[in-house]
């Protein structure tokens, strides 16, 4: 009765390509997080949490994460955050700026993740210190 073009298989190819690009991008961010000393590098694989990790990789304050949800501002914020991340990876900031351009970002993120550079440990590690034991009070 009704014919549909949805069974042609192009949708499946699209989703497989999307999945491949997503896995490449997240694995590259994971490698950058490992090299810069991020305490939870596996955050790269979780969709919203990887933006928060990216802000931490750049050494920015937590509220920069909120800027990703403001239209137009998010593009500027993304460029600045990737430029700072590129500096922390020991690469020129232009590599970070080029990540805002489609298809070119796959190359630049790969260069930052899979090439050697002088990585800076900008991420403060969580401190799990025990409090000092209480000293007995002296009675005078």
Strand share of the residues?
A: under 5%
Q: How many distinct folded domains?
A: 1
Structural class: mainly alpha
- In DSSP terms, counting alpha (H) and pi (I) runs of 4 or more, how many helices? 6
Q: Helix content range of the residues, please?
A: 40-55%
- How far apart lie the N and C ends? 99 Å
**Morphology call:** elongated
Largest sheet: none
Features:
6 helices; 52% helix; 140 residues; mainly alpha
Fold and architecture overview:
It is a single chain. The longest helix is centred in the N-terminal third of the chain and has 27 residues, at 10-36. It is built from 6 helices and no strands. Helix 1 packs parallel to helix 6 (104-114) and helix 2 packs across helix 4. The chain has helices at 10-36, 49-58, 64-67, 73-88, 93-97, 104-114. It has one domain. It is elongated and about 95 Å long. Helices cover 52% and strands 0% of the residues. With 140 residues, the chain is mainly α.
């Amino acid at each position: 009765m009704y014919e549909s073009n949805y069974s042609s298989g192009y949708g499946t190819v699209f989703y497989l390509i999307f999945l491949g690009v997503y896995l490449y991008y997240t694995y590259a961010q994971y490698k950058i997080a490992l090299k810069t000393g991020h305490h939870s590098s596996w955050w790269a694989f979780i969709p919203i949490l990887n933006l928060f990790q990216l802000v931490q990789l750049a050494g920015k304050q937590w509220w920069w994460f909120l800027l990703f949800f403001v239209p137009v501002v998010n593009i500027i914020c993304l460029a600045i955050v990737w430029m700072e991340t590129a500096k922390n990876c020991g690469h020129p900031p232009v590599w970070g700026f080029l990540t805002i351009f489609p298809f070119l970002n796959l190359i630049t993120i790969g260069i930052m993740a899979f090439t050697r550079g002088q990585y800076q440990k900008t991420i403060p590690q969580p401190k799990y210190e025990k409090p000092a034991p209480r000293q007995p009070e002296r009675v005078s």
